# Entry
Amino acid sequence: MKGGREMPANGSQDPSVGPSANLEETGRRSSRATIGLLASTHPAALAGGLGCCLVLVMALTAPLLPLPNHLEGTMDEQYLAPSPVFREVAAAPSDAAGAGVGTRLRRALFGELELWNLMGTDGKGRDLCSRIVWGSRVSLTVAIVAALVSLVIGVLYGALAGFFGGLVDEALMRLVDVLYAVPFIFVVIYMVSILQEYDDSLRSRGISREVVLYVLIGAIYWLTMARVVRGQVLSLKKREFVCAAEAVGAGRLRIIVRHILPNTVGIVIVYLTLTIPRIMLFEAFLSFLGIGVEPPDVSWGLLASDACAVMTPVNVCWWLAFFPGAVLAVTLLCINLLGDGIRDLLDPRTSGRGE
Amino acid sequence: MIFYLFRRLLGFVVTLWVVITVAFLLTRTVKGGPFDMQREFPPEIKRNLFEKFHLDDPPLTQYVDYLSGVVLRFDLGPSLKMRDYTVNEIIAETLPRSAVLGTLALTIALVLGVGAGVISAVRRGGALDAFIMILATLGIALPNFMLAFLLIMLFTFQWSLLPAAGFGSWQHLILPALALGAPFAANIARLCRSGMLDVLGEDYIRTARAKGLRESHVVLIHALRGALLPVVSFLGPAAAGILTGSLVIEKIFAIPGMGDFFVTAALNRDHTLTMGIVIVYCVIVYVINVLVDLAYTLIDPRIEL
Amino acid sequence: MISVSTDVAEPRPGADELLSVEGLCLSIRLARERVPLLDEVSFTLRRGRCLGLVGESGSGKTITALAVMGLLPRRVKVDRGRVLLSDPGGEGRARDLVRLPRAELRRIRGRILSMIFQDPMSALNPYLRIGEQLIEALKIHRRISRRAALDRAQAKLQEMGIPDARSRMRDYPHQLSGGMCQRVLLAMALLLDPEVLIADEPTTALDVTIQAQILTLLDTLKRARGMAILLITHDWGLIADQTDRVLVVYAGSIMERAATANLFAHPAHPYTIALRESRPSLAGGRAGRLPSIAGNPPRLGESRRGCPFAPRCPHAMARCNERKPPLFTVGEEHDAACWLLES
# Structure
């Protein structure tokens, strides 16, 4: 049992908490019951969660799927409208991935077949569906890494400020206030655009440009996380189980790590689901400006911005904009719905309200 | 109140100092800039640079020089890439255009957002509510350049109603302001709706209804004020977001505003211009945040600054 | 100090009955089920008389009042019953408020029927000045000028005992104390000279001295203006002090109704008797444990056949769990719903 998780008050008079919650019997919901409760009161959230899982699966299994080469294509196949067909593998990837486990598995499952032109092709004759699937890997990596960066910095900062309180808290939070007022985004945009100059020195130290990009993006969003975590820690500090731990003689670090941090998980998750969509949109934004993900890598943001660049009244390739946009929108929607559901579940005011 | 303004002024000074210092450090130390001592310059250019920027002086003097220049004379220095222009001149020309666009976008966001939010809350659970909320979620989930192109496709390519580029008449402003403001309208709609739903459950709404007031009166006069509070808090981040979004929107619609120049400057390594614009953005955001706080007190008489 | 009003209500002839609730049944939609809230509640409000509605929290008192006012929340529906409002002139048809179109009901609210609620501090809009909130209803129901409305509001505030009324009207609710807020709300409710006033726990959130003042005000209204008052409370002292007749409610059903004096002198229903015995008396000596009624009131959704009080009733019989007792006459204008009284 995680340290100090509170039990809901027994005998709640709320009539809308149905038998599926089993609150009074065990005083604590089993995880199956929680999912059941979530499903009945928040079908949208569950759908959102499923959607997120689907996207993750898609990104992870990309090498296994029978998709055409996403990096190269032939010019006589450019700008084709969608008309799916199964065909023999046309262009094997030119890098030496032919002997990899993934490719062997794929050959075992699908032979030499690939699904061609499910969503149309782009200006270089590359299959869009394949680029979207492979692009999901980059988009999700950006989102997760940047979110982790903002999470780690924010949580540590906020927890320290909240726990030590007093002057330390004052100083740390004043700094956050100042940084908050600085239009960080512009500074980051500037720094990202400068990144090119440092390519060589970075590469010589083994750091790829992408990683720095992700860290910089994450650096924009840690401020809110720090504030939120600090607020939570401040209110948790006053709760009884912290006093109990101190009375037993637990050291400060131990208290922070074992008792306080686990109880911030809820609110941190909620903020993550708010931040990740913003990170993905920011990546699209940077890619549009040409300073985000760069070819040969492909991300949803890059796909969307490429599509917009070739849009003319004459050559209306609707599929180039529609599919990446739809996938991006649906994924962000799923994350938002999941976040809403989790937030409702954690908020004691609204949980159990079965409208 | 005076105390509050004083504290804010102090915070502003500190923030501005941080930004200026960061600007100075970045421009002087970044590689490839004119201050990069490892680059080779032709002799006259080198002489020019040394004169303009006093590169002979020790770094601290340069810093103080720069700092005092900005603060006392509002002098942000010359542009590095656009000879014959100072940063101030460029900003003076481009800022009004961006300001017009941004203000229009914010107004659209408020009007659309609050309207949609109120309607959604009053017709809660109905088809209109669902429709509005779906639109709102889409507005938040799509990057604004996609929305911009969708609008261009519809209004310029398909229906030839509005121009897609340039800056001159009010028609030029409609599409960009819409594209810029739409994501924030979506957010405001959601905030307004949930704020409205919260307020409609309050006791004083029940009192108003018990007095026999018309429902429209109850909603607009009694409920709306409380519901607007979360919207007002959002205006700060919304303004900052509109500034950020303008970078892309101005580029798409070929509007020669500050955002467009910022992007070009960053890509061209025009460091003084870039940092100068950052400083201006900082001032704008700060002022807007103070105004938002003041607006808060106008709505809620219980708040004392 | 509890004093019992010796004013026994005698039905006067003529258009004396202002509001008549007949067989009201309410239900609420909970988790896709319809759960009964009120079962066959009937009572009459008469001019110049105060009817007390007493019961534990959750017994259905407030929802009854909301049903009369037409302010029921979305999930609650009226299944059966009528709420008849007689014509002010005394002649003409009575109107069934339950079935009235919304616009007409809105015109009645505030003008003929008014209500004050339990927590005065949250019943006023914190964002608007007191004056604005006071004159709203005036300007909508009667077309009078703003200046005239402000004057009337000021006069009413003074009537309610608020000093310096004019400057109070420029204040915001958070600048007033609880007692003041309740007076303002009372003034607001009375501005249009309504015929019926429903007061839902009007003094629960206030301290004792203020309570007394508010109650005196209510009493004056009843006597001087001939208003009909429905006083909802869980406080027996208030019942004894203020009301002419009492309705005892438990779990959405009427247990007993009588003139106040009779109820206190000869309570008939086991619930009423148990309530009376559970009140600690200042007169008696230390009695050890405080007396209380065993068990808990039924939770919402726990519908059962038979008398709702049966599980806790010391005199429960088998019959009590099978069928719900109707109201049996015990004395003059005195009924109680208990199988023990059938004979």
Observations:
- The CA atoms of residues 53 and 232 of chain C lie 5 Å apart.
- Chain C is about 30% helix and 25% strand.
- Confidence is low (pLDDT under 50) at residues 1-14 of chain C.
- The interface with chain B takes residues 69, 71, 106-111, 114-115, 117, 119, 122-128, 136-137, 140-141, 172, 174, 185, 188-189 of chain C (CB under 8 Å).
